[in-house]
Specification:
427 residues; Spo0b-associated Gtp-binding Protein, Chain: A; Rossmann fold; GMP Synthetase, Chain A, domain 3; six-stranded mixed beta sheet; 10 helices; 23% helix; GTPase activity; GTP binding
């Protein structure tokens, strides 16, 4: 089972605006006619129940969305890039790699999340015509799309998790109570992937069971299958702790039970709070009355059932108890949610854009400054208002925009393009 992947995402770049002029026979005055570039495509991640692993991302790690088309003459706009949607199983956690911060936990079928936004298309020269500049030969370049490296981690969403040592009969039990067909054999680690099955209680009630591969001592430190599957237990509402009560392999059922609970607690303290139902399997082979010893030890803390997955003895009583507990359980308490940093992604992109500094260049005699901070500044000012214009000029000076232009050789009367506006420079 592939339940982890690391991928790079690059949203589409915006198309460049066009420099063009009308030259039709019956348009003697002509004029600028360069259209805008199309916006770059966004990247979304969407959860679906139709997938159960992250297999698709095992062999491909880089994804690029479409760029927007460049603008064209006759005021024709470039086409917007087609958004890219990446599908993942329900229960997938998205982390930003460098900080290991969880930015999204996709727990619902159809839930969609914007992970990288495409760059905005550049303005064509049709936008820069003024009373003193009738034939502008300047158009805005398209912006780059956002990029991010994330890890995808799948944690199974199930109502009930089957836990226990290897070879205690978890695969046999899930095959009996559901239509799942796991590989079953009498040796350790038969199950190498979690198996999911649906238990149909009646026409209206059902629940999902996950057979978690057998744990061993040291699992919390990565021994055996270790962390690979302990994480899946975190999402289960309740646990059925399966114990081989027969003792035929020379093990002590009481010590086995304590061992697994110790591993769960060491991996995540909150797992010890999960509601557990104890199922003593292979009870038809209990020749040493291990059941009585086990019951005396734990009856005050756990609901205990004698079962035999092989003969189906006690299975109905176990299912009835699970159904009753699930109907009353507080999901918020027992379904462990991840700690998600809701504002991290916005801050991540803002920081990247700010740290990337502003972009300066000279084109067709016009000094140009573009960048995220310029866009945000233009959103806050009203250039028809005197005080707002003074604030705008002060912020440009604080950003070092004019100092940079002076380094580039700007002189009084030269044209300046800041974002979507063009004006003449005077000290």
């Amino acid at each position: 089972m592939i339940d982890y992947a690391k991928i790079e995402l690059h949203a589409g770049n915006g198309g460049d605006g066009a420099v063009a002029f009308r030259r039709e026979k019956y348009e003697p005055t002509g004029g600028p006619a360069g259209g805008d570039g199309g916006d770059g495509a966004n990247i979304y991640i969407k959860a679906t129940n139709s997938l159960s692993t992250l297999e698709e991302y095992r062999y491909k790690s880089k994804y690029r969305a479409e760029n927007g088309e460049n603008g064209m003459g006759k005021k024709r706009f470039g086409k917007k890039g087609e958004d890219l949607v990446l599908y993942v199983p329900v229960g997938t956690i998205i982390r930003e790699v460098s900080s290991n911060t969880i930015i999204k936990d996709l727990k619902k079928n159809g839930e969609q999340f914007l992970i990288a936004k495409g760059g905005r298309g550049g303005k064509g020269n049709v936008h820069y015509k003024t009373s003193t500049r009738q034939a502008p030969r300047f158009a805005q370049k398209g912006r780059k799309g956002q990029s991010i490296e994330v890890s995808l981690e799948l944690k199974i969403l199930a109502d009930v998790g089957l836990v226990g040592l290897p070879n205690v009969g978890k695969s046999t039990l899930i095959s009996v109570i559901t239509k799942a067909k796991p590989k079953i054999a009498n040796y350790h680690f038969t199950t190498l992937d979690p198996n999911l099955g649906v238990v149909k209680v009646d026409k209206e009630r059902s629940f999902i069971v996950a057979d978690i591969p057998g744990l061993i001592e040291g699992a919390n430190e990565g021994q055996g299958l270790g962390h690979d599957f302990l994480k899946h237990i975190q999402r289960c509402k309740i646990l059925i702790h399966l114990v081989d009560i027969s003792g035929l392999e020379g093990r002590n059922p009481i010590e086995d039970f304590k061992l697994i609970n110790k591993e769960l607690k060491l991996y995540d303290e909150k797992l010890s709070d999960k509601y557990q139902i104890v199922a003593l399997n292979k009870s038809d082979l209990d020749y040493n009355e291990n059941y009585k010893k086990f019951e005396n030890e734990f009856k005050d803390k756990y609901k205990i059932f004698k079962i035999s997955a092989a003969t189906t003895q006690g299975i109905k009583e176990l299912i009835d108890e699970v159904t009753k507990v699930l109907s009353k359980i507080d999901e918020e308490k027992y379904t462990l949610d991840e700690e998600i940093n809701e504002s991290y992604l916005q801050n991540y992109y803002n920081k990247n854009m700010e740290n990337g500094n502003l972009e300066f260049y000279k084109e067709e005699g016009i000094y140009v400054c573009t960048g995220y901070r310029i866009d945000k500044l233009l959103e806050r000012v009203n250039l028809d208002d005197y005080d707002s214009r003074m604030y705008f000029e002060k912020k440009l000076r604080d950003m070092g925009v004019f100092d940079k232009f002076l380094e580039m050789g700007i002189e009084e009367g030269d044209s300046v393009a800041i974002g979507d506006i063009v004006f003449d420079y005077y000290e």
